[in-house]
Amino acid sequence: MGSAFGFRVDHRCPHTGARAGTFSTPHGEIKTPFFMPVGTRGTVKGVRPAELSAVGTQVVLANTYHLVLRPGTETVRKLGGLHRFMGWEGPILTDSGGYQIFSLSHLTSIDDEGAWLKSVVDGSDVRFTPEGVMDFERDLGADVIMALDQCPTDPEARPDVEQATERTHAWLDRCVARWRAHGGVEAGQALFGIVQGGAFPDLRRASVDAVTAHDLPGYAIGGVSVGEARDAMRVAVESSAPLLPEDKPRYLMGIGTPLDCVEAVCAGIDMFDCVTPTRHGRTHQAFTSEGRVNLRNRKYADDPSPIDPGSDCKLTGSFSKGYLRHLCKADEMLGAILITLHNLRFFHRLMEEMREAIAAGTLLELRERVIAQGRSHAE
Amino acid sequence: MGSAFGFRVDHRCPHTGARAGTFSTPHGEIKTPFFMPVGTRGTVKGVRPAELSAVGTQVVLANTYHLVLRPGTETVRKLGGLHRFMGWEGPILTDSGGYQIFSLSHLTSIDDEGAWLKSVVDGSDVRFTPEGVMDFERDLGADVIMALDQCPTDPEARPDVEQATERTHAWLDRCVARWRAHGGVEAGQALFGIVQGGAFPDLRRASVDAVTAHDLPGYAIGGVSVGEARDAMRVAVESSAPLLPEDKPRYLMGIGTPLDCVEAVCAGIDMFDCVTPTRHGRTHQAFTSEGRVNLRNRKYADDPSPIDPGSDCKLTGSFSKGYLRHLCKADEMLGAILITLHNLRFFHRLMEEMREAIAAGTLLELRERVIAQGRSHAE
Description:
The structure is a homodimer. Chain A is α/β, with parallel strands linked by helices. The first copy, chain A, has 2 domains: 6-273, TIM Barrel; 281-377, no CATH class. Chain A has helices at residues 49-54, 64-69, 73-78, 81-86, 98-103, 130-140, 158-181, 201-212, 230-240, 258-266, 276-282, 321-329, 333-360, 363-377; strands at 6-12, 19-25, 28-31, 34-36, 60-62, 92-94, 108-110, 115-118, 125-128, 144-146, 190-195, 218-221, 250-252, 271-273, 285-288, 291-294. Chain A has an 8-stranded parallel β-sheet. A 3-stranded antiparallel β-sheet of chain A has the order 1-2-3. A 3-stranded antiparallel β-sheet of chain A has the order 7-8-9. In chain A, a hairpin with a 6-residue loop joins strand 8 and strand 9. Chain A starts with 5 loop residues before the first strand and ends with a helix.
């Protein structure tokens, strides 16, 4: 692997499988572990790129499916690629549409060749094949591009999981071929393969073998956010993360809560994305060092204290709960914006604290603290 | 007049009645002429206070009527007053509810004593009297507080205008008495009286006499944004602005377009407020040096140029029309936010340019340029 990409482990936890590293990309170095805000349509909802930087965002995720539908990857390419398009100069990761094939299954038909998705914008049928997705992601121009995968509809239904996992492997072969034809890492894009296998440890292990048969710049664990069962997720992560190559970043897709993230870091995961901080921000739920806070609650009406006395967020720390409650009740945009910023800072700071704790050998203490908070978060 | 308030004329236009001054308040000096963004419920929609500063905002306006309904002026007072409540450390002006008594007339009953307004929040009846409004505005704690006035429903219907103007004068007497009882300017709040008189020059002149019989820190011209007739507005401004005291700031309420502002500055006006830049931002209309731009227009889909090549906005200048069009079409909040910021910068910069042009003796050239732009703005 040449080019601008590289991954280095800086610290290892003496008590768990956690590591703190540095992931190099054409748009800068990223300290791991890290959390990626979701910028579905080329924007983290309500947040300017300069504000993302101010709350500690290192990388932004954008959704290929949504950008294919609108404005179209060709338009993004004409406008200079995703970095220039959305005004974000740091690294970007694009997903492949695999999750949407699963989550919008009522609009999808799928076979070995690929999937047809009906556009939610204009009702047209859009083709997603491994090769086509590589072309879409090349036009978007993100630093990290995800292979097209198939998430099983039920991670505990073995025949379904087997079929989806095999198809994911076959699609990865085709993605790798197309990505190499585009120039591979030398062309400035790192392809990550995705491990499937549902809640079955043996299928996860077999999937790790199949996916890591390709020497790629990074690997992801997929299909873990599709079920409700937290235990199934833990099994999936713990049975596959430790088997992934030590010298490559490991990405747990679509996760999660603060506690999910800490548990996964302990199992050796480096990268996360989730809509949790932004979506909860828009419904006025704040993550705090004292648990989850619903800022619409009447009890905050006259409360002069900040959202979280333990927060170091420079953009939101000066506003009172009373003011935020007023904004939320009045349906003022600024309420959702400020809580989104606060929540992003919460997640980024958790990652920074985990990195420090890994270096200091105190990750298990941090985990205990987050478990205590998590009881409130899980309310 | 003691205290932190003061007004000084720094430059006079050699060709018009325009002046450039400095208005001192307890929360800082303001260079005139200036434009106040409207922060109806204690927030300029979608914009953080730090962003207001970054686009050149000096003063923010908030609406007493809306804050009385929600969260209540008592709550704002408990939370430290409007400055701390909304996190804006610069000067603030609150209006009196007089405009809402007019614009929400279907929810209003009015007599010499005051007005009842039905709450749009919970249907309750809320009392607005001159004394009560002074109490509301004291609780809010703005630097500049407006007297309660009555806007005539039709500025060209003489009996209606006469009655509203007389009532405005009687209410001003009561506002002044209550404001003095609260401590006057020494208590940190400057009361401005409001001239009415509709589209009748003689009634405007008589109203100036009645209002300026009180020695107040500033004076406003009201009732000009209620009619559609631009000529009537011009008559109202030109017949009253030059008669207002030279040594006090002059505020034209609820105006307006860029051209309206330039014309009014030429007539001696120093202060403006209007929802134009923010409301147009939310409907994706941008004010530019080349006229009005509708960013939903298909022709901008692949346009890599910024909203306005002539803009110096640091927060929005790096985004392409193509990206903004995408955000607007996808109903992404960020579209409205960025265009709002751009429009605010446009209005503030116009004020800065007028100030420079007044000092340089080139205001009439600037006026010609804005007239040319105005043809597009009036589309």
